[in-house]
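Recap from last week: sequence in, structure out.
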Amino acid sequence: MTDDIRQTGRGFPSPKASGTILKKIKMGDVTALQCPQTGGLWFDVEDWERVQASPLNSLKKMMPTKTAPELDKHRGVCPKCGSTAQLIAVRDLILELSVGQCKVCNGRWVDGSTLLEYGNRKGGFLARLLGWFRR
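Predicted C-alpha cells:
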C-alpha cells in the first residue's frame, strides 16, 4: 500500500461513509484499508493481485465485524487518488464477486456486505463445476 496525495494527517477517507477514515489492516503480505463503519476494504492493484492468488488466506480472514448495506449502494470517490470519475462496478471473475474499480489507479473496493456474502459461500464456480463432475 503506497502513500498518496489523498492521505491526510488523519488518513484515507472512506469512499462510502462520509467523514470516516479508513484503517490500515495487514494479513500476511496483503495490506488493505478497511472502513470501520461499513466493513468495506480498499486494495491497491498489487495487493488485489495477491488476494486473487490466495483468496482463502487473505480475503476471508479480513471479514468485517460490522457492515452498513444501506451505504454500499452509494457510488464512492477513490480513497487513494481522489478520482471524481468514481468507482465503476466490475465482476472479478477469479474471485467471483462484484467490486468497485477506480478508472484512474485501478484500485479495488469491496463492500462489507459483499465480503460477508463471499465468506459465507460454500465454494465458487470452480467448486460447483467440480461437484457437478463428481455426481
